[in-house]
Fold this sequence. Notes:
Nucleotide Exchange Factor Grpe, Chain A, domain 2; alpha+beta; 6 strands; three-stranded antiparallel sheet; elongated
Amino acid sequence: MSDEKDPLAPANDTGAEAEADAAPATPEERVVTLEAELAETQDRLLRALAETENTRRRAQRERADAEKYGIAKFAGDLLSVADNLRRALDSLPESEARDDRTRSLLSGVAATERELLAAFERHGLKRIDPMGERFDHNFHQAVFEIEHSGRPAGTIVEVLQPGYVVHDRLLRPAMVGVAKGGPPAVEPDGTDDGA
Length: 195
């Protein structure tokens, strides 16, 4: 019964034998194999380091954007407050106020508007009030056109609602009326903008 295998005896390590059979026969072949493995490992390491650096930069950029533009939603909600303060001031010019109480009320509303706009400025929010400027679809929304305004075509002749930007991003476009017809606008370089 010596030909039978003992079930409790350790199995032959066929993996080690296969590795030994696959191993290069000469030391030079072994060096070449190890150098190839080293080069592959270095390549993987460099790629992993580059990916880590890219991830770090992306996270840093996203953090900076969040700090810079994170106020946009809150600021957007406050724009109607700024609009209403301006409407209140425009509804009764200070020169038409007849008594001290009305003048005092107007003064308080004006001070509140100034403080709100100053807070906007401190946080990178700027008002766009483009009266008389050339229409720019990046910052303005044309609501209507006015013919025979006496202004060059494409000039903003009425601002219905000011716009706002947060740093360099548009928060709300200015709603405007634009001159139609009339003389063509002259570009800053002195050339005619006409067709």
